[in-house]
Specification:
The protein is about 35% helix and about 25% strand. It is built from four helices and nine strands. The strands form three sheets. The chain has a five-stranded mixed sheet, covered by helices on one side. It has a two-stranded antiparallel ribbon with strand order 1-2. Strands 8-9 form a two-stranded antiparallel sheet. It is globular and about 40 Å long.
Amino acid sequence: MNGYDNAILLNPQGKVSEAAESAIFFIDDEMTMHTPSATSGILESINRSMIINICKNQLNLKCLEREVDRTELYLASEVFLCNTAKLIQPVLSIDRLSIGEGKVGDITSTIWKEYLKVSDNENENNSSLYFEQSLIIKGRS
């Protein structure tokens, strides 16, 4: 992929949809998290839902699901991807442009830690988030 680790996919309207095998999130300079909405051509996932729940319920972080222009990613403070295999993967550059300070951001690190607690079911407050998501998985199989 011409020296890149992943690809960001755009929908037919030219808006960000997702990465090749992952949901995409970004944090703006006002500490708000954004992710493409379900109507942006994404594949909805349990991991994406867990991250949104963690941010809203555990971290009190504002999370907006909406159409995202690719240029917004260039201006983001932090960008990360999530999927089942790699869990949360920080994005340090897009199109060879550094994201934020070019290192893993504090919010991404915090989300990662909380995500691990939820998925490992370490915390009573988090267990209900994980349990709800497990029921969804069991209901589809």
